[in-house]
Design a protein that fits this description.
This protein has 152 residues and is mostly beta strands. The chain has two domains: 39 residues, no CATH class; 101 residues, Jelly Rolls. The strands form four sheets. The chain has a six-stranded mixed β-sheet, with no helix packed on it. The chain has a five-stranded mixed β-sheet with strand order 8-10-12-14-17, with no helix packed on it. Strands 1-2-3-4 form a four-stranded antiparallel β-sheet, with no helix packed on it. It is elongated.
């Protein structure tokens, strides 16, 4: 395995090892690293933000959609309703997509914590690939786009 050396003195090879000039750090799972005398840390949750499984939920029964997971797939066993609470602080400015991926009947969402788009109070999904795209605000979700859903 060859070591790739970068201009800042940090190198990495295909076995996930890091090497810095004058000091060697070897790890397969790094959560803290010192660079230029500054300790840089990250929690497991922060490191896993690029993990697709942590960014997608499948909703198979009536209930609540997550306020922290950016992508919600509607795959209810039958028709039903989902709820969406106000966005958490971590979703401020972040996109949330709610999309029907399995059509076993209409799915509705009361737009209690959603604003914008229209003066609608309910969103209904009736076919696969229909989606509602939201962005997290301070107190409510804001409609960015809608694709095929019925807002009434």
């Amino acid at each position: 395995m060859g070591l790739t050396r970068f201009p800042n003195g940090v190198g990495a090879d295909s076995s996930n090892k890091l090497e810095t000039t004058g000091l060697t750090t070897v790890a397969t799972s790094v959560t803290a690293l010192t660079l230029g005398g500054t300790l840089v840390t990250a929690t497991a949750a922060e490191l896993n933000t690029v993990d697709a499984s942590a960014n997608v939920e499948t909703i198979a029964a009536a209930g609540a959609a997550s306020i922290t997971v950016p992508n919600s797939k509607l795959a209810l066993v039958g028709a039903g309703a989902v709820t969406l609470a106000a966005p958490g602080a971590g979703m401020l400015g972040r996109i949330k997509i709610i999309e029907m991926t399995v059509d076993n009947g209409d799915v509705t969402l009361a737009l209690t914590n959603v604003t914008g788009g229209t003066a609608a109070t309910t969103c209904t999904w009736s076919a696969v690939d229909q989606a509602l795209v939201l962005v997290g605000g301070t107190n409510k979700w804001h409609v960015v786009a809608e694709s095929g859903v019925a807002l009434t």
